[in-house]
Amino acid sequence: MKKIIVIGVGAQGSTIAKRLDETEGVSEIICADYDQKAAEALGSTLKKAKAIQIDASDVNHVIDAARGCDLIVNGLPLEYNLVIMEAALAVNASYFDMAGPMEDIGFVESYQRLFSDWHPKFKEKGLTALVGCGSAPGIANVIARESVEQMDSCDTIGIYVYEGVWTNRFTPFWWSPEVAFGDMAYKTFRYENGKHVQDKPFSRPIKIKLRGIERKVRMVDHEHDEPVTMGLLADQVLKGVRNVDFKYGGSGVELSEILFKMGLLSQDPVNVDGTTIVPRDLVLHLCPPAPKYPDEIKAIIDRGGIKEQGAFLVRVDGTRDDKPIRIDSYVNAPGLVESFEKSGLSHEAYLTGQCAAVFVKMMVEDVFTEKGLFVPEQLGDDAREYCFQELAELDVTVDALSESPVA
């Protein structure tokens, strides 16, 4: 039986906690958040939980809260990752998060440091750290590895996420607008011809036909973990992949690109008629927040006007028996209304939260027991199969389309 602390009980953290409450191998769940009211609200709904307030910026505070725990689940923004990882080592607990850190040294360099410095730290203590495990990054990486395993060599991995949900209530993002705009305005990363390449935001636009969407849609490069980790692990687990990119499209991207080109996502102060304004602060002040609580989501659904179209594709090109092949894998998940009916969550929170919960449950049930620090594309056959089976029970499935020669 394992004792687990979930630090950060937003949409994803609370979803993980709820799944753990149903897991036989869990004896106790500590719901920890800076917002004590939020932690208590969640804890009161669970059989195995207690709630505490925590200051995750203070490593000693995290250490005190996590003493005696077997696993720390980090549901906080990226800037807290290294603090909580340090606390995990101090209390001899395994560790989980949904996205890798973004240090000042750079995105690629941050992951290099995780592999070179933090992997041996966890391994020496006989602990497991699993990082970057939600939907993307997360299940996208698992799908890519699954496709690569069916090939003799891999040339290209492309991850394409298109999100289009329109409602009568203007909702540009279904997750934190601060995080969304920050990511949109950040430089992009890709792995090209065996090297990591940085580029400007909204670079390399393409038009692509995706299953379930009538017309071709415009997609652009977007700052994401997958090209970074897959490039670093190309020879180790991805059969020498030479090119990896992540492209994003949809209404939120279109809005952000316009604001970016106008300078409204800049954090550099500007003077407007004698008043100093930070453009992004103004945008965030005016932007409606993402719906967080069930009553907010229900109010949006009740107002109607819902139109949804989206796609989540992992495309892998490689060779087998000296012939080129392509495997397209589409992720199917509940939409807004269905996600809310199932769990009281938005479609965005449902997919990411349930994927993360499956990865955590995999650790709790000792399906993945390797010691050290790992990212999802490093999971072996049994762990990948476990993920697919568990997600299918949550109506998150993957269609791997018939292998076909690349034209």
Q: What percent of residues adopt helix (DSSP H or I)?
A: 25-40%
Number of strands: 18
Low-confidence blocks of residues: none
How many structural domains? Answer: 2
Q: Give the count of helical stretches.
A: 15
CATH architecture field of the largest domain: 2-Layer Sandwich
Query: What fold name stands as the CATH topology of the largest domain?
Result: Dihydrodipicolinate Reductase, domain 2
> Quaternary status of these chains?
single chain
Q: What's the N-to-C terminus distance?
A: 53 Å
The CATH superfamily of the largest domain is identified as Dihydrodipicolinate Reductase, domain 2
Strand order of the largest sheet: 3-2-1-4-5-6-17
Shape: globular
Strand-pairing-aware structural class: alpha/beta
How confident overall, as mean pLDDT? Answer: 94
CATH class of the largest domain: Alpha Beta
Strand count, sense and closure of the main sheet?
A: 7 strands, parallel
Could you describe the 3D structure shown?
By secondary structure, the chain is an alpha/beta fold. It has two domains: 2-97, Rossmann fold; 139-346 and 393-400, Dihydrodipicolinate Reductase, domain 2. It has helices at 11-21, 36-43, 59-66, 81-90, 107-124, 139-148, 177-184, 226-232, 234-237, 251-261, 279-286, 294-303, 336-343, 347-364, 381-392, and strands at 2-7, 26-33, 49-53, 71-74, 94-96, 128-130, 153-166, 188-192, 195-199, 206-208, 217-221, 243-250, 270-272, 275-277, 307-320, 323-332, 372-374, 397-400. The strands form four sheets. A seven-stranded parallel sheet has the order 3-2-1-4-5-6-17, with helices on both faces. A seven-stranded mixed sheet has the order 10-11-12-7-15-16-18. Strands 8-9 form a two-stranded antiparallel sheet.
